[in-house]
């Protein structure tokens, strides 16, 4: 099973100061060294974290599968066609949301999604649809020509106890259906070090897409070393070395 690592949050940290540090492409390189099979970024219409330059640089330097998350809008489709990531994951996008909140509305948006799939295919880009764990949405994804689906695990991740069990069952049922009808099947959103195992146990899944928990863990596991390095510099300056 592949692991795609989303580095949007590295760009969010950079945007907090509006400078150039930390650089998402460097985070992507380290993620690859750590074993990431893919790198994901979400180029949002409001460019709140990843920007066009990041995407350009990532396209040139990421040696593993580059997955561009995007809304099916004219502007971003043009950018995708020009940049040619290895795959695109179509997601719904709302300006006010903190993160992608729900799956794509493949029923209402069938025409828009179908058109986007065609444009992306014409440019040699594989297409995944980020959908809620719903069998009908799985079937609709196949109907509009998607190569893959990513089953939204956000509700599973948010719930506890019996409710979480019910959400897990929904994810499993949707994933089985997708695999059965020949869609490459992924899962993601909200997965962390405590809840990932039960999703990773689902047979036949192609991959998992994880961002926040990995970047959050990196901040904590890296903090001690970062402080030590700063202290060493200060001490060396103090002692005139
Ligand atoms: N998959 C999709 C389609 C997403 O939009 C996101 C969030 O950017 C993720 C996976 C990763 O979610 P998280 O950051 O909660 O791991």
Written overview of the protein:
The protein has helices spanning 8-17, 24-33, 52-61, 74-83, 110-122, 135-143, 154-158, 161-180, 196-200, 212-238, and strands at residues 2-6, 38-42, 65-70, 87-90, 126-131, 148-152, 184-188, 207-210. The chain is of the alpha/beta class and 241 residues long. The chain has one domain (2-239): TIM Barrel. It has an eight-stranded parallel barrel, surrounded by seven helices. Helix 3 (52-61) links the parallel strand 2 and strand 3. Helix 2 packs parallel to helix 3 (52-61) and helix 6 (135-143) runs parallel beside helix 8 (161-180). It is globular, with a radius of gyration of 19 Å. The model has no long low-confidence stretch (mean pLDDT 96). The site of pyridoxine-5'-phosphate has 19 residues, from strand 8 and helix 10.
- The end-to-end span amounts to 49 Å
Which regions contain 5 or more consecutive residues with pLDDT less than 50?
A: none
Arithmetic mean pLDDT:
96
What would the principal axes of the Cα set say about the shape? globular
Q: What molecules are bound to this protein?
A: pyridoxine-5'-phosphate
Q: Compute the number of strand runs.
A: 8
Instruction: Kindly name the structural category.
Output: alpha/beta
Helix content: 40-55%
CATH topology: TIM Barrel
Using the 3D structure, state the CATH architecture.
Answer: Alpha-Beta Barrel
| CATH C-level | Alpha Beta
């Amino acid at each position: 099973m592949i692991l795609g690592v989303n580095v949007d949050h590295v760009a969010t940290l950079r945007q907090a100061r509006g400078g150039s540090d930390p650089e998402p492409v460097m985070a992507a390189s380290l993620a690859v060294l750590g074993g990431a099979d893919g790198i994901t970024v979400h180029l949002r219409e409001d460019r709140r974290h990843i920007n066009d330059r990041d995407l350009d640089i990532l396209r040139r330097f990421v040696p593993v599968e580059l997955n561009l998350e995007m809304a099916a809008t004219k502007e971003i489709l043009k950018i995708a066609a020009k940049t040619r990531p290895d795959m695109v994951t179509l997601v719904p996008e709302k300006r006010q949301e903190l993160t992608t909140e729900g799956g794509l509305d493949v029923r209402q948006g069938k025409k828009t999604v179908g058109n986007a799939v065609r444009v992306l295919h014409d440019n040699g880009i594989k297409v995944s649809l980020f959908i809620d764990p719903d069998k009908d949405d799985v079937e609709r994804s196949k109907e509009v020509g998607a190569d893959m689906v990513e089953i939204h695990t956000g509700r599973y991740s948010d719930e506890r106890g019996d409710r979480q069990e019910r959400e897990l069952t929904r994810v499993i049922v949707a994933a089985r259906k997708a695999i059965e009808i020949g869609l490459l099947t992924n899962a993601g959103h909200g997965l962390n070090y405590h809840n990932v195992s039960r999703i990773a146990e689902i047979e036949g899944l192609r991959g998992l897409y994880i961002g926040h928990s990995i970047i959050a863990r990196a901040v904590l596991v890296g903090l001690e070393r970062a402080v030590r390095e700063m202290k060493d510099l200060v001490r060396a300056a103090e002692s005139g070395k």
